[in-house]
Amino acid sequence: MWLAANETAAAPGIEGYLVTYGPLVLMFVVLYFLLIRPQQKRQKTRNMMLSNLKKGDKVVTIGGLHGTILELTDDTVVLRVNDVTKLTFERSAVNTVTSSGAASEGK
To answer: Transmembrane region positions (predicted)?
Structure first.
């Protein structure tokens, strides 16, 4: 009797691995679908928004500054805050586009 119990404990087989590593795999799958995948989607839409910036867009920076884009380079954005004030920001500092330049030109 003792010998039979020892033999089954020594050779766990596929069931032993499933019981041992199954919860870890399940936790990784849940974390992927709840945390990693949505973050990748948000990052993709943000990168698309930053690449589609153009002159005349009204934007809000991460710091909350509202302005209109006057100039664009690969890394920087020059915003007109009022009639005389121009401020230069990193392109990544733009948080949202409030209205497109094409939409405001049509008015």
So the answer is: 16-36
